Amino acid sequence: MTDQMTETALCDRCGRELTASDPVPMCAQCAVEVADGRIPVASEGVSRSDRGSRAVEFLRSFGPPALAVVLALVMLMRVPALVGAFSNPAPAHDGTVVIDATGDRCVANLWTIASAMSENEPVDATLTCPSSGRPYVTTTEGEVTIVACPDAAAHGATSISVRSDALVPRVR
Q1: Which of these, 139, 140, 136, lies nearest to 155 by C-alpha position?
Q2: pTM (2 decimals)?
């Protein structure tokens, strides 16, 4: 008998013994995995795994400082709201007219009336001027409704009113 040495071919990727039906130089399973993209194929220059490790290295070195900067910016944007929450509220009026505390309450009532007017709801008839106790005076000029304090002089102002077209109380 003659001894013939049969040389067996091995898969380049996994090292399994190749059969006659396997595509050379890989076994059928490795050929399918390469075709499906499960096993990365090295390209010229930098392989996919090298690119991935570079990205991970970049994120590890610059990720935490970048996250800290973003969080610091977000917190800085919230500072005005935080300061406003702990500071004394501004008076309910704007401008240079000085009115007393009941005038501030009168303006607060007009804000309530302005809110009702913006929702097209009827004005609450039970709201009265805190100084005089009289109901607010309602007048109409065309399509504009004006609600005014009946005794603005008692608050130290010429007039305190709100208009349906502006919806912001004015103190003069």
Answers
A1: 136
A2: 0.46
